[in-house]
Structures are given as C-alpha cells and as structure tokens.
Amino acid sequence: MRLACRPYFQKDSPHAPQDIAEASARLHANTITLDDTVSKTIKFISYIDNSLQISSGQPSKVPPAIKVKNNVWQITLQAGRHQTGAVANSFNSLCGGKAKLYAPSGGGDTPDELHFFFGISIAFQNGVSGTIYLAQGSYGTTDNWWIGGSPIFSQDRPRLEYQGGSKIYTNSLSDDHKTFKLQQTDIRLCAQDAKATPS
Question: Are the beta carbons of 90 and 67 closer than 8 angstroms?
C-alpha cells in the first residue's frame, strides 16, 4: 500500500525544488525534545494547524505526537526525510534569518537544506504564549534540529525570550542535535518601564 504524499509545492510552481524526491520515501519517527526540567517554565505545547512544510514527494502524518514527563517534552512527527533548499528558504524567511535561528549541533549560520519544519505554540506558566518553529535537516550522517522564530535569538548567546506584562523572561538554549535544553537565566523590566522606575 502506497503512502499518501503531501507535496509542499504544486508541481508546476516556479518555486518548486528541482531535485527529485527519493523513490524510497517512507515515514520516519522524528523526535525533538524540549528539556525544561531546570526552570519548569512551560505549561503546555500545541501544534499549529497547517504549519507543516515538507519537501515535495515526502509522506507525513500530522499532528505530531506531543507528550511530557517530568517537564521533558517530546514532539514526534511521522514524516519522510529528504532535504531541499526550498524548505530551508521558507524556514529562514519565516523565522527572520540568521539572528532568529539556532541549532545546537551543525548550526552556526542558516540551513541550506531541510527535510521539513512546523510550528508550535508554547504556553508558559506565567500565562504568556509564543510561537516557534522546529525544523529538521542533516549534516554528515546526523539528523539535526533547528529552532527559530521571533522569540529566538542566536547572537551573543542562544536564548528564547518572551515578554509578560512589563517583564522580559530569558531562557538560555543549549544541548545537542535532538534536544533543546531551556534554563531561565534572567527576568528584567522592559526598557520603557525600567526608565520610568525611579532610582
């Protein structure tokens, strides 16, 4: 029985990737881990409907499975693995370029090719929610994951930041090719509120 394919681009699109999808395209269990054991800042994670973008000709099953145990979140997407530049270009553009992307292993710039990416909404314990994008590519023989979006910063030190009321919450990002470890490192007043606070 053939798996139904979910093409990213229409066949006649001028932006369609020029390479041909692997004939042996099949589903793989692709798992990314968000380790929040240190700070316990995440309350809930949900998949953003219709956010998956995957290389043409590759199979997929959405939504991804999301489970949590002891503040370690595992997100598993059933999808094919075939890299294309078209998916990477879309991911880079949607997230905001090099400064808004991070990969603990095999990163350093922007990905040239990716298998797929999708969006998730993270609800934090303080009531704030943020949207980030998770992408999988590969370098050498390793499948590695990227994280991106407006809350992500790769310059100076990799981190996830979000605003809640008059405060900005900072979580450092680290670990390896299949795990993002979050650790809250700073809570500070927004610039305008800091200026208004009497010394």
Answer: no
DSSP 60-124: EEEEEEEEEETTEEEEEEEE----BHHHHHHHHHHHTSGGGEE-TTT-SS--S-BSEEEEEEEEE
- Assign 186 to helix, strand or coil: strand
pTM (2 decimals)? 0.84
Please give the pLDDT value at position 192: 66
Count Cβ atoms below 10 Å from residue 134 Cβ, excluding itself. 24
Q: 105 lies in which domain range?
A: 28-196
In a domain, 1, yes or no: no
Q: How many folded domains does the chain comprise?
A: 1
Q: How confident is the model at residue 186 (pLDDT cuts 50, 70, 90)?
A: very high
Neighbours of 106 (CB within 10 A): 17
Model confidence over 104-116: pLDDT tens digits?
887 678 999 999 9
Cβ–Cβ contacts within 10 Å for residue 146, how many? 27
